[in-house]
Amino acid sequence: MTRWPALLLAFACQAHAAPLHFDLPRLDGDGQLRLNQFRGQAVVLNFWASNCLPCIQELPVLHAYAASQPRQRVIGIAVDTRPAAQAYLRRHPASYPQALSSPALLPTFGNQIKGLPYTVIVNSQHRICTRRLGPVDAAWLAKAVAACGGP
């Protein structure tokens, strides 16, 4: 029998050889959101979907963290349809930038099974420092960001 705690994988990994990047359409405004906009900074990337209950449950944690740590970059990446993600964000505004992606981006950031929610912290060279499949909590987020060179 598989239980949620067993699925809440937290794993450290070695940095990828090359810096990661993306260029995604914004959900919360016009234009694109590019990882290289945040050169030299650790960034929290949270992949979510509007129909993912654990994603919805962790949003307040990420929202509170981003609001309390304005120097730390946090980016939400909806793996969803534009209408569904935008409707969700209208009901539950986030305090950090939001972009739209397809599930195809997930393996690039170490999520071969494409499960959600999925949080990745990249270091200042934009290499994966740590990642977690399943919802994050405030304690994990604070420790992981600190370990990856965030403020």
What does this structure look like?
The protein is α/β, with parallel strands linked by helices and 151 residues long. The protein has one domain: Glutaredoxin, CATH 3.40.30. It contains four helices and eight strands; from the N terminus they run αββββαβαβββα. It has helices spanning 4-7, 53-68, 82-91, 138-147; strands at 9-12, 23-25, 32-34, 43-48, 73-79, 98-101, 118-122, 128-133. The longest helix has 16 residues, at 53-68. The radius of gyration is 14 Å and the shape is globular.
Task: Outline the secondary-structure elements.
Elements: H1 4-7, E1 9-12, E2 23-25, E3 32-34, E4 43-48, H2 53-68, E5 73-79, H3 82-91, E6 98-101, E7 118-122, E8 128-133, H4 138-147
Parallel strand pairs: 4-5, 5-6
Antiparallel strand pairs: 1-8, 2-3, 4-7, 7-8
Q: Termini, distance in Å?
A: 40 Å
Assigned CATH class: Alpha Beta
What is the overall shape?
A: globular
- Percentage of residues in helical conformation: 25-40%
CATH architecture descriptor text: 3-Layer(aba) Sandwich
Helix count from the secondary structure assignment? 4
Write down the domain tally.
1
| Strand-residue proportion | 25-35%
